[in-house]
Each structure stands twice: as C-alpha cells, then as structure tokens.
Fold each of these.
Amino acid sequence: MYQRPEAICQRCVEAVSGEVVGDQLKLMKDAVEQARKLRRDRLIACLEREVLRLRDERNTSKNAAMCV
C-alpha cells in the first residue's frame, strides 16, 4: 500500500507528540521500513534519528524510575 512520504512523516509526528510507549516506537520502525521500500534516503535518515531519540528517551525514563 503506497503512502506519500508526507503522510508517513505526519503519522510519526503524531506518534512522538505524546508519551513514549512501545507502540510508538513500533510505528516509527514501520515508517522506516516503508521509507526504505520507497527509497527515500532523507526521510529514512530523519526517521532513524527519531527512532534513536525515542529509544534514548524510553531508556532514560526507565533508568530514572529505577533510581527513585
């Protein structure tokens, strides 16, 4: 199913606008895979950076919860 890169990006923005949870990270990974299929290098790089940011944010919040 083809979706324009702008639509993929908009879904990602919506996904990361709230609290970080596993479903959002999965959505981002799915968007990266779809961008790869479309061969959108700049979009792929943007999405991969966002996935890494989400992972870091999730791990930081887990570590903070363990320290309390």
Note: Residues 5-67 form one domain.
Amino acid sequence: MTVVVPRTSDKEVRQEAKSLESVGKKLVASKKVARSYLHKNGFIRKDGKLTKKYGG
C-alpha cells in the first residue's frame, strides 16, 4: 500500500502560520478568554487548576 501526501507550498505554510499566530494572540489577549479556552479543551478545571491528565 502506498500513501501519497501532497506537499504544502511555502505560501500555504506562511498563510497557515499567520492564521495560527492571529488566533494565538486573540486567546492570550484576555485572561478570561484564555481560561475559557483552556477549560473548554480540558487543560484546566473550573477552579483554574490543571486537570489530572496535565499534571494536576
């Protein structure tokens, strides 16, 4: 079995990196937004402590 993986162009890589950077800046712009993201994705509990999966 052969798997063909398309190569991403440099332009696409730059666009993706720029997009991710933009999202990252929005997440850390507000402590409330950052905590909400971390809680929603299972990194922290409601009280702000790490979940067991991440060392809490």
Note: The chain has one domain: 11-54.
Amino acid sequence: MPGSERESMPSPSSGERGRSGETLREHWECLRALDKQLANAAASFSDDDGAFTYASAYEVAREWNGVVLEVKAPKPTLKSPNGLSKEEYKKVIGASQWIRGVIEGATRISLLSIEAMPVPAAWQESLQANAKETIGVRLYNELSVSYGFDPEALADRESFWGSDLTEEHAVMSDIDVVAQLDALEKAEAVWSAKLKEQQTIDSLETLKTWGHGSRAKTLARRLRNSSAYRRVLYARYPNAEFTSLQQMKLARNDNVALAALASYAGGLIRVASSLRERTLDVLEVHHAALGEANPHRKSPKPFGVFDYISFTASRTSELVYELGKSLERTYDGTRALVGVDGRGCSAQPTAALADRSPAAIHFVSDTDDSDDD
C-alpha cells in the first residue's frame, strides 16, 4: 500500500521455489539412503557371530547414594584371547567406515539446512562490535594468517583433537567445542557485516590508492579461514550440540522443511556416532589383546618447532593486548575520577558538530579501525 511503513517481503519466483524444492527432495532422499546405510552397518556389526560380546547392557558412569545418574556403553569382551580373526577384523573395519560415511553425509546436510535458515534479529543484536573480544586474541591472530593457513594444525594447537581419542588424551570435550563454534559464528557474523560495509566504501572511492581493497581482503581471508576451521571441528566432533545461533533458528521454525531435514540429520548423527564408538571399542580391545596401540583412534601429534613458535607468538600478543586493555580501563577510570574525558575537561562546553571543519569530519570518518575487527 502506498504510504505504508511496512514493506512486504518479496516472494520467491516459481523457478526459485522449484529449485529449492528439488534441493530439499535431494537432501531428503540422501538422508533416507544414509539411514539404510546405517541400518546395514548396524546389522553387519553385531555380536551374533560370537566374535565379541557384552557382559551387561550398560556401565555406570556416575552414581550418588546408590542412584545411577549417568550410564555409558559397556566395554566389549572378545571370545578369543588372541583377538579377532582377519575376517572378523575386516568386518568391524568395514562397518566402522560405513558408519563414518553416514556421519559425514548427515553432518553436511544438517549444516546446510540450518545455514539456509534466516538469522534471528535477537541473535544479531546480541553480537559484540569487536570480534577480537569474542574469539580471543590468540585465535584472532591464527585466523588472520595470510599464507599457509592449516586448520588441522590449528585444531591440534587448540587441543581439539577429536571425540574419538582415548580418554587419557581427550582434552577438549563436546561442550568445549560448542563454545568454540559459537564464538566463531559470532565473529564471522561481525566480519561479514564489516566486509559488506567495506566493499560499499571501496566501490564509492574514485581514487584508487595502493591500499585500496586491502581491508576487504583481510576480512574475507578471516572468514575463509574461520569457515575451514569450523569444518575441521565439526568433522572431529560430530556429536557436538547445537550452537546458540542454531538453537534459535530451530526454535523459530521459520521453514518446516529445513527444520525437518536438520532434525532427521541430527538423529542420524547421534545414532551413528554412538555406534561408531562401539566399533572403535571393539578394535581397542583387539589391539590391546595383541599388545599394541589402536591405529584407528586418533592420537595427538607432537608439537613441532613451528607450532611452538606460533603458539608463543600468539600467547605473547594475547598478553600484550590484555595488558593494553587493562591500562586503558585504568586510564579511563582515572579520567572519569578527575572529571576529564577524551577531549579535555568535562566542565568545558564541547564544540557543536557544525563548528567542525569538513576536513576534520572527513578525517574522522575515514579512520582505519582494522584493529577492532
């Protein structure tokens, strides 16, 4: 309606709706195929052939005053003290690989479905303006690397080695990785908004200097590195819970089809992750019977010289940043105590905006705030 303050959202064209429907159907059929694949793998991995068995249905993980608070999967027992036979070993390995394929495929569809949902305004408004404060200085510097960025090595340095490690090596849990993923999503949202603003500013510049577009390239590089790092974390922790953004998207339920896909995929991921842990437990017992380490469980890589140098430099930068912030807060508190702000004594009248020269206004508006990204 002319003169109305509310603008109607543009409806998608029939072609767009058709392509969207085809994509949803493809994802749905893919999930059904993964479901069948998981069922076949579960049937293949069974203790009916007598290779291994379980002494009980579960083991008590935590209890209090005789009340069971948490249970976990029981450890398998091999029928032969010499471990599995070659045929039995290959059977367990094959089932584990099929289950892993289910986890990877379902994780990809789950992430695509949730990312296609609109971002809630409440989550967007809760973001901090400074991404460095959100993810920390050390991770901020790691994601700002220009060349040779290795997300796998970064995950190792951050002790996110994966959920399929042995218990004595598992440093970061699923709860820790959710906090990391949540911070990365918030930082990426801030960088995406600043990238759009910077690209608009660059397009309006008539004089292209030597530094033209450098800040936009830096922001795009951080987004690219952060996305690659998140993919590694999801691959290493497939059973991690939803982040705050993902939870809000699913709670809004703006798109029933996408929400159904995400729920279906999430259920497959949880069941497949639990079943794959069972296969790894059987392999663990087999290799323990042979007196050797399980090669199918990831083990932390030892830090190399470059890792130590990178970690030390990042840690030093983090300490310097925190020291600067502490001094800034102390300085601001002292100025407020004596009644002086950043422009002088607060008792003095400040100049109106109209009294400022155009040159000063232009200089202030073009101030580079790349350190606050």
Note: The radius of gyration is 27 Å.
